[in-house]
Amino acid sequence: MSTGRTGDAGAPAHDAGHTPEGTDPHRWWALVVIALAQLMVVLDATIVNIALPSAQHALHMSDGNRQWVITAYTLAFGGLLLLGGRIADLVGRKRTFVFGLVGFAVASALGGAATSSGMLFGARALQGVFAAVLAPSALSLLTTTFTDPRERGKAFGIYGALAGSGSAIGFIVGGLLTEYLNWRWCLYVNVPIAVLAVVGAFALLHDRPGHREARLDVPGAALGCGGLVSLVYGFSEAQPRGWSDPLVLALFAAGVALLAAFVWWQNRAPSPLLPLHILEDRNRAGCFLTMMLATIGMFGLFLFMTYYLQVILGYSPVKTGLAYLPLTAAIITGSTQISARLLHHVAPRTLMAPGMALAAGGMLLLTRMTVHSSYPTEILPALLLMGLGMGLTFMPVFATATAGVAPRDSGVTSATVNTSQQVGGSIGTALLNTIATTSSTAYITAHLRSPAQKATVIPAGVVHGYTVAIGWAAAVMLLAGLVAAVMVTARAPKHGTAAKPPVVESVG
Length: 508
Description:
With about 500 residues, the protein is an all-alpha fold. It has 2 domains: about 425 residues, Growth Hormone, Chain: A (Up-down Bundle); about 55 residues. It has 18 helices and 2 strands. The chain has a two-stranded antiparallel ribbon with strand order 1-2. α4 runs antiparallel to α8, α6 packs antiparallel against α13 and α14 packs parallel to α16. The longest helix has about 40 residues. The protein starts with a strand and ends with a strand.
């Protein structure tokens, strides 16, 4: 049984200006370790994007199969996150954190050494499996390490900045490694990062034992993971096959049926994989939905801007990566300097809703892109607006979604936040890419009247497709802001009380 303890009866949670009693003195160094691991996981969703043309050429992949370098990772990651979160709750967060780091490093080394496309696809899927164990462990360790409201706000500001900017940083690092070393280093780079994080974890991280009396919900794991994998796979196949393809429709139907069966089973399971009371909380559900909608728009933008900068404007991989630097800086500023400072004064939705409106405004500016757009005057302002908006949003989403969760559910709650992000990214990439491709084809068909026009009409048609899809992404961002404003009703954390102080576990 678990019992909570806040200190001596009647004692205040902490005195102003003093470290709360029982707080880990190495907690900020522990944050560095957790942040390293989270950055590694988020980086890998995008770091190979810029390296993909080189990898495709080296391993002789077909155009139809090259998508699996990206999809194998997101499929395994998004589909297995809930299971990874529950394993963290059962076995212990520190153990699963270290296990995830070691496995991720091994999978990265295998991918870097790949001699065939199949070996690379398998290594990327294996990375996703270990990321699904690592990510919820990292977030739940952060939740239990920082209990003082002010410190918790700063810690989640840093974590939110990494979650929001990690994808953009991946483009920069991927560009540098691809241009100056080799595409394989986009995978090898994870090995030294993981080694550092493992050493730091053993030295700095502390955790209570897992809940040995609980049991893993195997039917729930099969239904939930199967449903998510079916949906993510369906969205990934919709782009090359088309939305009306029988396989795509069958995958969507199977995904919906499996997730419906999952919900039915969770109401009856003796030890459910995802306790439904986590979703019944209005604030938590609002945060999950806001995160999913926000990443639908964000990942779509990354896809189009990368191709726009490299193919239309002719940027090199490094220059493309550096073009994302202002976006990264804006996300970090919005998260650590604005959200982290304001969250303990204002309600979360007063940051999240305006944040999504800002991001949508940046997206709308990009709908005016042409073949000859100028980066400083037309692209840069939009990226800055988007970055600030996402920085304002991600930090309060992570902090609010994981606040007030029972210790035994912290891993699975953390996993659900990450699942929202990964599933949103997968949906956004597939959905918006299909919209862009369809719009481009329609534009080119309508305007191409002679072969001599190809050099001008085709690039214009491609950019037209991007702007149409980005317009839809802006609408999704606005919907995310509306969801945050309506569903997230949590108040600002109180200054004088600790947020979920450490819990003493006893077996009995």
